Amino acid sequence: MADRITRQVVEGIQYIGTGESIAYSIDTTKWGDTPTALTLAITDSAGVDRKTDLVGGGVPSSGGGNIVNCPEISSAVIGERYRVEVGFTVAGQDCIAWFPLYGEK
After folding, report:
1. How many domains are contained in the chain?
2. Is it the case that residue 56 has pLDDT exceeding 60?
3. How far apart are CA 28 and CA 34, in angstroms?
């Protein structure tokens, strides 16, 4: 299998307020349809795993087609910068789509 493809989403930096809950979606069209082996990782600016803090036990899902739906992200800390990585496999290729997420008031 080829190396993993890692790309930042074109929308760039996302912002989330401390009182907000947002469920992000990733369109895998440029990689292919029917993503499988879905994963989610969220780390803070120090590289510490914050997935449990921000989504609890939530996991990404796909209803078919080319969309990966992330669980709701909430409880962000003001001023913290996170890296959200959504992993998936399409056509035998492992891929990661990622975006920076900034906590704000």
Report:
1. 1
2. yes
3. 8
For the whole model, what pTM was predicted? 0.92
Amino acid at the residue 19:
G
Determine contact, residues 68/60, Cβ cutoff 8 Å. yes
**Domain containing residue 17:** 5-104
Q: What angle do CA 37, 43, 46 make, to 5 degrees?
A: 150
What pLDDT sits at residue 58? 87
Q: Look up the CATH number of the domain holding residue 43.
A: 2.60.40.1220
Give the contacts of 13 (CB within 8 A, at least 6 positions apart).
99, 100, 101, 102
Q: Is the dihedral of CA 49, 36, 70, 7 positive or negative?
A: positive
